Amino acid sequence: MTNFPSPAPSPAPRESDELNLRKLVDTLSDHRWFIVSVTGFFLLAGYFNASSQPRIYQADALVQIETRGSNLAFMESLGEPQQGNPTSAELEILQSRMVLGETADRLDLAIQVEPRRLPVVGDFLVHHGVNQQWFESLTPEFIRQWLADSVDDAWSNPYVWAGESLRVARFDVPEGNVGGEHVLRLLDGGEFELLLEEETLLTGSVGETVQNDELGYRLFVSQAEAHPGAEFTLVRTSALSAISELKNRFEIIPRGLESGVYELTLNGADQNQIQPTLDTLTSVFLTQNVQRHSEEAEKQIAFLNEQIPQVSNQLSDAEGMLNDYRAQRDSVDLTFETQNLLTRVVDVENQLGELAMREADLAERYRPSHPNYQTLLRQRGQLEAERDRLNALVSELPETQQEVLRLTRDTQVNQQVYVQLLNQLQEMRLVKAGTVGNVRILDAAMLSPGTIAPRIPLITAVSGLFGALLAMLLVIVRMLLSRSIKTPEQLEELGLPVYATLPNSGEQAGLTERIRPRRAKKAQEVFRGLLAVKKPAEIAVEALRGLRTSLYFAMLESDNNRLMITGASPGVGKSFIAANLAAVCAQAGQKVLLIDADMRRGHLHHAFHGKGIKGLSELLARRISVEEAIRHSELDGLDYVARGSVPPNPSELLMQQSFHDFLDTISQHYDLVIVDTPPILAVTDASVVGKLVGTSLMVVRFDTNPPGEIKAAKRRLESAGVRLKGGILNGVKKPTSSRHGYYGSYLYAYR
């Protein structure tokens, strides 16, 4: 017989992972309205915050900084090497206090003007174009009155609205009040007043300079377009603060790799001031750049003017001495060899003369230890050695030739130096007249269209996304941290059989309202009307019919026909279940009595549109008879007993013999007696009632009661000798995926 290998076991499906993911998706879907609400709130908050921020505008300009500008011809002729990176130096100068400070001084940027806005929403309204007339026409009278009380003046006077502005051309304050906040208030007829801490400092008119020499104030308001009573805050900051603020708004962006072209940008909230400020800044930079080069040319011209007369005198003396000697010697001429030697000697002497002038210039700039200075000294040493060698050759010539050579050398050297200095002087004058610097403005400042900040759509979208993520995170964290009962299996693991699973009813919410009883600290929810009567086809009512069937068999083994409905904590829906269970049992032909044994906060009488007085508490106190306590409802076969007046000792009343006798009596006249009791963990009433009934059921609220709470309630009843028959899982919420029923309860609508 052939043995076939058994097939390899197939991997187990990852059902738990799928269920966990499905549960996560279903949980998020169940809380979709919470997520949508939080997202919407963050969207509105983000939009409001972004719209309330100052509008930031930007202007830009384009400049070119050349690596070598109009360098001085004199310096080039002397061969001085260029030191450092002139482009980097110019960029640092552009951001220096020398340039920014002069710009701030020219435009008086130390003056800050801030309008007074309506608290919280003022900037938002102004940025949306809301003016005073529009706001006043739509503002309710009580808000106007509140604003009038809050500012002690006409309700809208202090606040500046859309289309209103103030221009201050000059504002001088004493040294001690620099940085202090002054208030400028506009008056009728173009008048204004300047205040500091409610003290009037100046009064004047728009377009006129007003001053107070005693206090040290001077103010010129060039333009004011606002209603009388509008207030603006004026601050005169220090020069250093104005420069720092301007530097923070100024940015240099390189354009291209080593192109020497840079984009200058300036941003700010004053749309009318940004472009003039950037124009002024570039103009100051260009002017100072030209001035620096012009000053260098002026220094060289002054140096040449000082040297030329000295060289001219030396040339005259040399020519005179040469002519005198020739006259004495009857015009002696130089031989060919001596003429060549003279040429070489003159060349060396000229180079030494140039080095001497370079040394004079370098001595004003550098110390002798500087590398450039040391290079010049080495060159001079080499030329001096060459000159000594040539002089040695000259000394071998005849005496007459030596003297003629010496005098001719001095004449030619001085003549060449003199001509060179004259040429350089002319060049320096041309350089000074045509100095343009090494900076050019390619594009003048221009204001960019629109605003660069705040980016309202982006901020709003990010805020909404953050809100959605936060809401989902809260839902997930709550799901992970929640230990409340969500499935019937969890109750069965606690030893509590589940007799029914009731879904959360949207129709029941229409019957529920919040009331606050007299002398009660908190409001409570009550329901007026029975869901089983008004909406008999509701799925929750169908679940109660299933509970009715289960109870029929469960109560066959009971000692009596009494059923207690209780719960571990308030708000689990035990009164709703007790009342509607009584209704569906009465609809099935049973004669049912519903007793509200919660004499503290019972509200079953509201379901029957009755009153709470003359009920169980009066009956147990023997103030009324049984016939007076029992009331008939609109539903045939259903009677009820209200809670009665709130007694000081509900538990003691339930423990009296009168309550025992009452239950024994009514059990003989009704097919089913349902008793609604207070929560087990709150008071002991349920333990007292449970001893007198044959069947007890505990209502557990879906996603509300934790297992520990159910265990404590069950333990308390069992310690009193009450055995719970089972539980009812109430308020189960339907997940998104309808094919999963009610979280494993397999409860479906069937119509």
TrEMBL record:
Gene3D superfamilies: P-loop containing nucleotide triphosphate hydrolases (3.40.50.300). The keyword Kinase applies. The chain crosses the membrane at residues 456-481. It comes from the Bacteria. Residues 571-684 form the AAA domain. Residues 399-478 form the Tyrosine-protein kinase G-rich domain. Residues 17-106 form the Polysaccharide chain length determinant N-terminal domain. Its main location: membrane. This is Exopolysaccharide synthesis protein.
